[in-house]
Amino acid sequence: MLRRMIFNRLRTSALSLILLVTIVFFLIHATPGGPAYSILGMHATPEAVAALNKEMGLDHPLWQQYAIWWEHLFEGNLGYSFTQHAPVASLMGSYLANSIILYVLATVIAIFFSVLIGMFQGYWAERTPGVLIGAGQIIVYSIPTFFIGVMLILFFAIYVSWFPPGGIGGDQSAGGALNIGSYFHHMVLPAITIALPLTAGLSRYFGHQARSEYRLDYVRTARARGVPPLRIAVNHVLRNAIRPLVTVIGMMIPGIFVGGILTESVFNYPGLGWLLWRSALEQDYPTLSAIVLLIGVLTILGNLAADLTNSILDVRVRYE
Question: Which CATH superfamily is 92-271+312-319 part of?
Answer without folding.
Answer: MetI-like (1.10.3720.10)
